[in-house]
Amino acid sequence: MNTRTYAGHTFVFRIDNGAVFRNTYTSDGTGLHYETLEGPGKGSQETVVLHTAEVSPGIFILGWVEQPGMTVTHLMNLNTHTVHAFWTYDTGRGRTAELHTGTLATT
Predict the structure, then answer these.
(1) CATH code of the domain occupying 10-106
(2) Domain residue spans of the chain
(3) CA–CA separation, 57 vs 54, rounded Å?
(4) Does the N terminus or the C terminus of the chain have fewer Cβ atoms within 10 A?
């Protein structure tokens, strides 16, 4: 059973490259509205459809595709308030991938 304990909550997600996002999850946990608060893309925002799985109590895999074709996967640990984020994007010369870590704070 997927309890989606993140559903209906908003988190500030700070990652190791200095970017900061405000992630607001829909009440049913199937959607996400993100806003880029700091770093590359500051000011950008989008609402996306989530693909999710709970791998252990409080630990979730969340994945989505953003409008420009960027793919994003988060391993979100609500027990430790940490995230491992993996994303890929087109550079015009092929796709590249990045792996980041970060922390979550509730708002």
Answers:
(1) 2.40.128.20
(2) 10-106
(3) 7
(4) N
